[in-house]
Design a protein that fits this description.
The chain has about 400 residues and is mainly alpha-helical. The chain has one domain: MFS general substrate transporter like domains (Growth Hormone, Chain: A). Helix content is about 80%, strand content about 0%. Helix 11 crosses helix 14 and helix 13 crosses helix 16. The longest helix has about 30 residues. The chain starts with a helix and ends in a 9-residue tail after the last helix.
Length: about 400
Amino acid sequence: MVTLFSVVQCWLSATPIGLRLAVFYAAMFVAMGVHLPFWPVWLKAQGLSDSEIGLVVGVGMGARVIANPLVAHWVERKGQQIYLMRILAAFSVVLCALFTVVDGFWPLLLLSATWLAIFTAIMPLGESIALFTAYNHHLDYGRIRLWGSLSFMMASMVGGVFLADHSPAVILWILMSGMILTLISCLLVGGISPSTQSSLHSAAFRQALTDSRYWLFLASASLINASHNIYYSFATLHWQRAGISPTVIGGLWAEAVMAEVLLFAFSNTMVTWLRPVGLLILGGGAAMIRWLILGFSTHIIVLVASQLLHAFTFGAIHIGAMHFLTCAVLPEASARAQAVYGSVSMGAAVGLATMIAGPLYQAIAGQAFHVSAGLAVLGSLLAVQLYRRWHGELLGCS
């Protein structure tokens, strides 16, 4: 007997590959669009201090340092990327549901670390599939990825509206909805065969590891991504304390992502003009300006203007990093390269910076954004060095 699920799955397998990947990104970013702006608010409602919030958020981000390499090792040994994505999504739903019964700093710290380690491990697998599918089928990766950003924007706006009229408990229920949508999207991503990803070879990745330019890339991207630590952890609380309503705050997060979407829409042109490393330099410079502005003012007009820079501080960095990994690393090492980038740049660096963010923000409040500007400057300087040394060749081959 043909089930409704099999009918939908068959229909999706007959739809364009780009559409199915866009659905995956949209589902993933529903959860992220609630978690990033409003999770600190939910944690605050559970009685955690600013320092404890920084630790919970930071350890959660840092947990991918362990999870991502384990996932990459599984893929390298067994393949089965899509199957593993489905298993991880199912566990993410179960762990997220446990937040309804867990209370206290240490239980929340442990659960948050476990849940985020598993949930965020899905993304490198999806990115690896999306990037090489885009290259193999001559698709525009940025225009696929932008559906995730649009989903993030809608989720942050809806979250802000709901938070204005309901208790912070509503945040968890919206987050659960995002988890369920992610699971459904992973179940329905059938018919995409990442042929190169399922036969990875450690030698190909070791080849890249021998090249100092790979480490220069990781250091640059890590510092610029880590410079977002105060923004991700405390921007919402900082603006609330300045008297800005949750609805307006949700709109500010949404505006930032809308700017990111516009960059994604023209990302191929940007990569052609600036090259991947040029985008890293652009993103680092924009981050320095953005964090300096946020450290000086919470005036709504200033915030509206500064949020437009998110197109570069996140969008340009992400596009630059993804294209660098695709162009500079052999295809057989794609999944592992994505995992290491996620572990180091989006995991260890951001996690450590976020754990420091709690005590830092508690001590100097909005001036902590100026420390973030310093990290962005260091990342930009390293990106300039990389720009001078890498000209599009495979790492380890020259």
